[in-house]
Design goal:
This protein is mainly beta. The chain folds into 2 domains: 304 residues, Glycosyl hydrolase domain, family 43 (Tachylectin-2, Chain A); 213 residues, Sandwich (Jelly Rolls), CATH 2.60.120.200. It contains 2 helices and 40 strands.
Length: 533
Amino acid sequence: MRIENPILKGFNPDPSIVRVGEDYYIVTSTFEWFPGVQIHHSKDLIHWELVARPLNKVTQLDLKGVPDSCGVWAPCLSYDNGTFYLVFSNVKSFDGVWKDTPNFVVTTDDILGEWSSPVYLNSRGFDGSLFHQSNGKKWFLNMLVDHRGGKFFGGIEMQEYDPAEKKLVGEVHYLSPGSELDKTEGPHLYEKDGYFYLLMAEGGTEYGHAMSVARSKDIIGPYEFHPENPLLSANKSPENYLQKTGHGDLVQTQNGKWLAVFLTARPLEKMGRCTLGRETAMEEVVWQDDWPWLKEGRVPRQFIEVPDLVEKANPPKQERALFNTNVLPIEFQSLRIPISDAWCSLNARNGFLRLHGGESLTSLHHQSLLARRVQAFHIKAATEIEFSPDNFQQMAGLVFYYNTGHYHYAYISGNYDGSKKWLSVLTADNFEMTFQDELIEITQADPIVLKGEMNRDKLQFFYSNDGEQCIPLGKELDAGILSDDYVREGGLHYRAAFTGCFVGICCQDLATNSKHADFKWFEYKELTLNEQE
């Protein structure tokens, strides 16, 4: 069998990979979604399974109030002498020239167990990584934020980390300003055959993205760039299946082969919108003249040959999650706050998930929303809901969500005194709300099934009040607005846009933050080509 790219589909950017024995682990960014950092595991590099999100306490990760697409950036996972190290940024602000980017490290001896309290490192930049030198020293690298004269990307720097003192010590070493590709970030350092290799993301995280490499005999430099820099990029191949390729990491298999994991995206059309967000792909790396090269050119491929490993498939995922257990499916995340009984309970009513209404979908603080990544171009999602609103300020339903200013929401609400119950759809586009004119009265109907079918850049909602007949709800919607590319076109409302499309369930009570909705199940189905036909 072959490895098919992307190996981690849907919003899974900024990969960092480590091998421990026969086990491979990749971590990816989660931004404002809680718990923080996704950890995927594989033994064969073909089949990957989401196994943990290590930053699961507010004491480790406080996201309340962080702007859209801030929070956890570019985690780096490493392993040394029985200990896993996880470095991450928790970005607090990104608008204007000031960038508040505190960096932390947590540790564990069990990657699926509890992680330590975070140790603060610095706030000089973001995209931090930890390098374990063969002589026993540990080095923390980051890109430098330089606000002077609108520069922003100030190059790559490094400082020693003392694990006993749990702090950075000694001189800060400036390693490289980057190449002519500019926008240098995402540094990783490696030691091989007498050289230190500095891997960097360059060119920005859009269609000019690239992965560059430089080397030096001395860890503090000077570093010379690859003779045919960049190592990897699709920036001159707009027809390639994988676009926006860059920001990655290297790993050596137990059989001696080298591989790169890297960020990628798949546009709906040439240089178009990427509704699945930024994903993770893999390529084979070979060494020649003490330089790494992609096995075949500079442009990454959709399919690569599998290294000589034993295939180990994961059990199939259930399409329908029944809320009759005490554990939520691992695919679900919340926005900025931990999932707790205070607003989300599997015990309040037997066989149901109860969401107590929180703040609006525009809130950066207390939303009652559970959602999972959209990971295929054509999907169907559905849920069965029981909800009895007391007034028009109470809502609950099914949402396709990008950020606080971009979503499509099929929802149940009421009139002023709660004597009538309505079903409708609203859209947030660049923070402007559009409420569809049609209100479907469902006063006597309970439960209601809500369904959404997203096919590339089209989204259609449906509803059923008898569990059998599925009726279109509202008009066909533009799912293309749920993409980084569209959000970056937002003019005065522009903010960082680095995440991806989610689908999930939510409940709002703008009156008292208490009214609840009960959900019996949630279904997510990816359609095959045959089913699409």
